[in-house]
Amino acid sequence: QKEVEQNSGPLSVPEGAIASLNCTYSDRVSQSFFWYRQYSGKSPELIMSIYSNGDKEDGRFTAQLNKASQYVSLLIRDSQPSDSATYLCAVHMNRDDKIIFGKGTRLHILP
Amino acid sequence: DTGVSQDPRHKITKRGQNVTFRCDPISEHNRLYWYRQTLGQGPEFLTYFQNEAQLEKSRLLSDRFSAERPKGSFSTLEIQRTEQGDSAMYLCASSLRTGVSYEQYFGPGTRLTVT
User: Fold this and answer.
1) B109 to chain A: which residues are within 8 Å by CB?
2) Using one digit for the tens of pLDDT, what is the confidence trace for B85-111?
3) Which residue, A3, A37, A78, B14, is the most exposed by fewest CB within 10 angstroms?
4) Dihedral of CA B40/B42/B47/B48: which sign?
């Protein structure tokens, strides 16, 4: 099992709809989880961090964490064309104190 | 702009040459990370520093790669005897390690092309 897994996509979502991005991780004792957005040719930009089970909302973004299922997700409400990017899930691995990234999911918002 | 800067932004070099990249982190951040990213992949961990101490280096990283962070401020990443497989985006990130917070902020990256 890979340490952090994401569906590579592309995920196509109509403008105005909810985009749902998913991530699973292998380290059962991980405590810190992050979502980054990366536009083509640019570096990753931190958009959400989550540390506790449940939901965390920030504007149109909601991160969801379920540690029992080792699952973290990102919901984007009212999707806009500017949301089209690659979304990277990152997990802090307690065993070696490193942050490991998934391969990312490409999101395409259809106008 | 996250406050993390990298120099140069682009580097084209011939196979066998040495290259050095610089990263200036956010001033109060105590951790600095180097990653490498190729097309279609997520950032791959290379090494990281807590202040001036290099805490870990990826086992996948050959001895041609070395990094320093003198005085716990800026950091340099050197690649000796470059190979075409070294062509990638090299990313630097900094964070303030507090409690369970490991939020990292990335610089713009240095794109290396080895011809």
Assistant:
1) 42-43
2) 999 999 999 998 776 678 999 999 999
3) B14
4) positive
